[in-house]
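Posted in: Structural Biology > Protein-Ligand Complexes

Title: Requesting predicted complex, manganese (II) ion in pocket

I'd be grateful if someone could produce the 3D structure tokens for the following input. Sequence and ligand are given below.
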Amino acid sequence: MIELDDTHDPARTSWVEAANDPASDFPIQNLPFGVFSAAGHDARCGVAIGDQILDIRACADLGFFEGEAAKAAEATKASNLNGLMALDLRFAGALRRVVADLLDAKAGHAAHDHRDSILYPMRDCTLHLPTAIGDYTDFYAGIYHAIAAGALMLPDNPLPVNYKWVPIAYHGRASSVQVSGAPVRRPLGQFMRAKEEMPHFGPSERLDIELEMGFFIGKGNKLGEPVRIENAAEHIFGFCLLNDWSARDIQRWEMFPLGPFLGKNFGTTVSPWVVTAHALAPFRVPAMKRPSEDPKPLPYLSSATDQQAGGLNVDLEVRLSTAQMRQAGEQSQTVITSSSRYLYWTPAQMVAHHASGGCNLVSGDLIGTGTISGPDQAQLSSLLELTSGSKPFAIGEGEQRIFLEDGDQVTFRGRCRREGFRELGFGVCTGEIIPAHHGE
Ligand code: MN
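-- Reply #1 --
Done. Output follows.
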């Protein structure tokens, strides 16, 4: 478990003024890592602070780091975070403590004096994927999603018999993971339309979102060597928001018996900033309470510490903006709100299960939690669930949606709130649907 320390002190402020705005996702208590390029510069690792990005390499060149923090900074020299993630979590923790001091309104004089050479306005930078993602796995740990989506796909058996025993997942596609802001092309694919006898090939007619959180593997494990549940949290570097774009028509036709394939591998979007396990320490909560009639997890998935503090409390929101709304100058509308508290399995249980057969997880690998729906209608976190695939909802001035249309922009946000602590957020995870390729 990560202990609270003075990096979590809500009284701390930064000399970067925008970080002190209560609405900012990136106060001095957050300090998420990401990869950016400023105009005329190569991609490099940075830390978000307010509306600025701190250049870790520039700080290292000024001699601001020593000991474990220096080793951590050294590991960010490549244009991705894989090296930093491969180190024991305490190295990123050491770097975080020094960065907090550098940016501190009271203690950060030395860094403030060099502000022009170590800070870049975020709006002038391009943000990249945080890691070179070797592998991507997507779980199915949101039990309200599993029940609601299962009821639509398989009315007789919405929750698979193994659901409360096994953290279910599918192996996703790393090559099509994109950073927030990249357009998402509507996929072509094969599917069966209602009341037709033969499958059809063409642009998906049921394009959907899945509201999820993602996390990045820190230290890996050797092939053949499982990760014990007690140690699993040490293999999780940090979290992001994740949209598992899904073509429901393609998915439905192809997924039995081997699971999702082309219905989900045309694109996955992640937010660019990795909110670290350290920053999230105040926002850990008990694992989702299992009803007393549910089975207890098997021993390899059971840890008292994980049950007590392995859950995560992040408020999640989905906003939708249509092309017509933007033309009319209208704001995007909130269509879904949910919370990461509705995960039946904790991230540590996902890691322990994933590695339990000996599968090697590698630093920088991306894991999705699965769609995080809540028990209420407004918390159903995919359009499939929200509309049951047939009942439209109203959006903008006189428009309606069942699934996504070309030009629709979907934006996820996540925010951590707890009495006595500074609120922090994840930035945005956004993507716009562009028309299918014409090569049909
Ligand atoms: Mn998913």
